[in-house]
UniProtKB/TrEMBL annotation:
Biased composition (Low complexity): 48-57, 123-145
Comp. bias intervals (Basic and acidic residues): 104-122
Taxonomic lineage of the native organism: Eukaryota, Fungi, Dikarya, Ascomycota, Pezizomycotina
Name the record gives this protein: SRP9 domain-containing protein
Organism: Pseudallescheria apiosperma
An annotated GO cellular component: signal recognition particle, endoplasmic reticulum targeting
């Protein structure tokens, strides 16, 4: 019996799941588990609930499992990233096409995975730029050609 294999990225899990589904579409199953873990509240003798710092948000985790009972193969991926959960749920529908014997599931999943990687890079770059802008907020100097004011359109004079 094969061991459970955990993957570091969702794309690796997708690729291997597609291969397993293509090999055994009638027996392979995909399951999901979503759990929310509430943070523990630590109280000391000196603190009271009213004087504690702001409470932490609950931590959620999504676990995806592809399992084939015939071969014993189990593929798992876990994530705590909220932005990734929506994308993963959408891809599950596309993976199910392969289980139904429909063609094109591999291309759709790979295309969506590539789009998601680009989106994560853009979002990461935007967050980094926003953080950099916040850090140097008072010392911003406009670049050449971006000076604000002046040089705008003039009002048109109408006939009187």
């Amino acid at each position: 019996m094969a061991k459970t294999k955990y993957y570091k990225t969702s794309q690796e899990w997708f690729d291997q799941s597609i291969l397993l589904i293509e090999a055994r579409p009638s027996t392979t199953r995909i399951t999901t588990k979503y759990s929310i873990k509430r943070p523990r509240i630590k109280q000391t003798e000196e603190s009271t609930p009213a004087t504690d710092a702001a409470p932490r948000a609950p931590r959620a985790k999504l676990t995806l499992k592809t399992f084939d009972p015939v071969s014993g193969a189990t593929l798992k991926y876990k994530t705590t990233k909220a932005a990734e959960v929506n994308r993963l749920i959408q891809v599950l529908g596309k993976l199910s096409k392969g289980m139904a014997g429909l063609k094109g599931a591999r291309d759709e999943v790979q295309q969506q995975g590539a789009e998601a990687e680009k989106e994560e890079k853009v979002v990461g770059a935007a967050q980094g730029a926003a953080a950099g802008a916040e850090a140097g907020k008072g010392a911003q100097v406009p670049e050449k050609g971006q000076a604000g004011g002046g040089g705008g359109k003039k009002k048109k004079k109408g006939k009187r």
